[in-house]
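Chain A, query sequence.
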Amino acid sequence: MLNVTDKFSGRVGFLGLGIMGSPMALNLIKAGCDVIVWNRTKSKCDPLISLGAKYSSSPEEVAANCDVTFAMLTDPESAIDVACGKNGAVSGMGPGKGYVDVSTVDVATSKLINEHIKARGALFLEAPVSGSKKLAEDGQLIFLTADDRSLYELVSPLLDILGKSRFYLGKVGNGAAMKLVVNMIMGRLRILLSKKVGLDPSILVEVVSQGAISAPMYSLKGPSMVKSQYPTAFPLKHQQKKLMLTQDLRLALGLAESVSQSTPIAAAANELYKVAKSYGLSDEDFSAVIEALKAKSQDTA
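Chain A, predicted structure.
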């Protein structure tokens, strides 16, 4: 059973060991947690197994053998499949268990998973994260949580291992909505204009980082964009879905449309990400989208 203590004493499951999930699971292991892992590609589990994690062959088995199960999947479809599909985590859930989805999904997806988890008598917490690979490695993520307050309190020690701050936002869907709004803002980072008017973009990054509109994203992504080097922390392809729409922007635009909110800048950014995909930038960091902007600028010169 789950216990409210300064240190979480239950067994923790972790589903999805990609760029974000793997360092998150690793930090739980390093903190002394009893962790069971699963990933579609088992080889991604091997480094964690060598460090003490246990392995189960399906999300259902992980959930059945753990007090709380975390899921970090790449898109809404994967989140639904891993939770609700064949041998999904829902089948292993029951009273006294908790499911914490830290994936970036739309509000409807979060509500759907919540319904399936609750139907099994278990607790659900949506907890998408704001942060990149480096912040995941350093345990400096920000959690945007919603739904079951009691589960939030119970897993707070785990969230504090994985992140630097956590926010409880009320009813299910609010966490997903907050994450999409954050990503919409993040997707509008631009430094190309400074080059076109003859300014040193590296100085622009420094000025912005010290000014009133300072944001860690400028300091984090600005230098690599200036150098045209894009070490992958958040792959551009993870933002892409059907019809070449970028996943996070697509979801954010859908959220805005659901409340009749006009978002012309975000819509324009979405079009730019579509161009970036056509230039073969899917495996680069999302900041490589500036290369698409450069190409469009040259085409119109």
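Strands lie at 11-15, 34-38, 54-55, 68-71, 98-101, 123-126, 129-130, 141-147, 163-168. The chain has 14 helices and nine strands.
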